[in-house]
Design brief:
This protein is of the alpha/beta class. The protein is built from seven helices and seven strands.
Length: about 180
Amino acid sequence: MKSRIHIVGASGSGTSTLGNALAAVLPHTNLDTDEYFWVTKFTEPRPIPDRQELLKNDLQQFEHWVLSGSLAGWGDCFIPCFELVIFLWIPPEVRLARLEQRELERYGAEALAGGSLYEQSQAFLRWAALYDHAGTEVRSKTLHEQWLAELSCPILRIEGDYSTEERIAMVMDVLKRDQHQ
């Protein structure tokens, strides 16, 4: 069985959800790149050397892990650790609707027009909307495709609006096939 799994995709594609779900059915610890990237969530990024050191320590601490979220660029030094990378993609309209709903759940009325977090929320949603069409200057499908092309480990692409249960089944199929080879 693959012990070191990385899940990557756009914000709102379900990387954290799948990471948590896999950690519930596998003997793996779920780690999320947001915990390493941010000093203060979504407002103050952590310096790259500090992110790398924190993540390195946690990856060494656990024998079996699932790392969810993007680390393309700042965490390329961890590429040799990955035994399987899962790439998630869902249609932009589905992903952006999820993100809008998540913003409302997270911040309530403060994320609505006139709220104290409205501008921050709108800036985030504009950034997230770039994913499918931007170049490599931001977290984008183009950047992720380029990054995936450089990997030597197996890649499982899950592209489409699948439920978490369907995604788990796809991953488990790959892991079972790997055990029998």
